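User: Study the chain.
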Amino acid sequence: MPGSTPATGRKTSGSPRFKQGMRALTSGVTVIGAYGPQGAPLAMTATAVTSLTADPPSLLVCVNRRASIAPALVLHARFSVNVLAGDQIDIAKAFGGQLDVRGTGRFIYGNWRRVDDTEVPLLTGSRVSFECEVSHVHEWATHHIVIGSVLDVHFSHSASQSLVYTDGKYHAVG
């Protein structure tokens, strides 16, 4: 199928120049959360998240296949996308592997909860949390491109700034 596999041998493929160029792109910071097959919470910081369609409401999330959360997403499970607030830099760093914590130990950062019958971890104090169900997974090189149908949206009325990432640094804006 055309476009189903990445082209190889290009000058910028995996190059430091490509990575340097992408650092100029300012992105919102999110933490994607899910529960694994044994019920343990899993999460990772991600900036490769975007809206896909408003009708039906859906998001697109790109996740490295080696990420601990990847198997849970591929199994067509539910997941959350928690849009971080400006004061949640430590959470971004913990789930982004920038602090010396691993696995479920990362969940000491932030106040995580389940609301009613949700099947995903939600972060209290994030700007907004989206509950999603995996609709489709497309494989591309080292990553899974996950399309999530939005099931519910949880707003925080206390968070006034958003956390963004650009030029290798976190910034609060808004």
Observations:
- The longest helix spans residues 16-22.
- The domain at 28-173 is CATH 2.30.110.10 (Pnp Oxidase; Chain A).
- The chain has a mean pLDDT of 90.
